[in-house]
Predict the structure.
Amino acid sequence: MEVNKETCIGCGTCVGSCPVNAISFGADGKAVIDQGTCIHCGTCAGVCPVNAISE
């Protein structure tokens, strides 16, 4: 999964939805996905209100 930094609004919805806690915030206030932890379930992409997360 990848975060489009230009679209991400830093709302945190994805952080709360991730079942393996693979998402955090970077210094820029945008979501960052730890690729080593991410299981590619797509939950974060499904809850993102601005569609900033994609496969």
Summary: The beta strands are 2-3, 23-25, 31-33, 53-54.
